[in-house]
Amino acid sequence: MNAKLVDVFSAERFSGNGLTIFSEAEGLSTAEMQALTREMRQFESIFVWREGDAFAARIFTLEEELDFAGHPLLGLAYYLHQAFGDGDRHEWRVRLGRRTVELASAWQDGRFTATMVQGRPAFIKTLTHDEVGAFHEALGLAPDRRRRYPAEVVSTGLPYLILPVVGGLERIAFQVADLSPLLEAHGAKFVYVLDVERFEGRTWDNAGRVEDVATGSAAGPAAAYLHKHGLALGTSLSIAQGRFTGRPSRIAVELVIEGLELADVRVSGDVVEVADITFVE
């Protein structure tokens, strides 16, 4: 079996968010995909195979399969472009479970950029002051007594609790063994702590053991949140992430406005190849 290692949301190797792309993976079982992901020890891996003239994929974290994710799909666009493209620009459609995701890929001036269409964001729930306080306590944050910005569950495919802060990202320290029960009570999968002044975010697995470097599936909801609350000037945003992991990353987000409605969110990032991997039989 062959695989490709890439870094997403960076134009330089050994920065951004690493990803392993397993090609021709249709014969693998769920257990085998999970085992291979754990072997690579990255936040996520993606498995892809041909389905007629199109492609299908599955995404795994170290713990589980995900219905949707950002940087694995952008990294996949790089693989598809290199393996099946014949020009500088291409568009791709990838089946991810019951959802079909549209991707675009482009080489320009020696840099590779991938874009994914995340669609219209869903604003699922706004938390009360007491509910927000429970998350502040769980993450070791001081209470926000001014309540300047609400915490909301927002999704473009994977529901995140957008927990706004003004500074203090460096002070976060998990005080609970598992954040999942708190999140599940509000219909969220993960928390994304967003500094609404710096446009910088942090997110982890729900045990707080592994911090994600750059999270495309959270950047879309974060940008939608910033737009909704009048914090985004214009429709082109850049979300910073990864500073605390030593792999600083930039996630570009484009908001598509139709009339007064936020109709679509598109997330982009650079991708750079790191290695080709061959697994022994």
Automatic annotation (TrEMBL):
A single Pfam family it belongs to is: PhzC-PhzF
Q: Which GO terms describe its molecular function?
A: isomerase activity
- GO CC, alphabetical: cytoplasm
What sections of the protein cross the membrane?
Answer: none
Q: What Gene3D superfamilies does the record tag this protein with? A: Diaminopimelate Epimerase, Chain A, domain 1
Active site (catalytic residues): E44
Q: Which residues form a coiled coil?
A: none
Similarity comment text for this entry = Belongs to the PhzF family.
Q: What is this protein called?
A: PhzF family phenazine biosynthesis protein
Q: Which organism is it from?
A: Halomonas organivorans
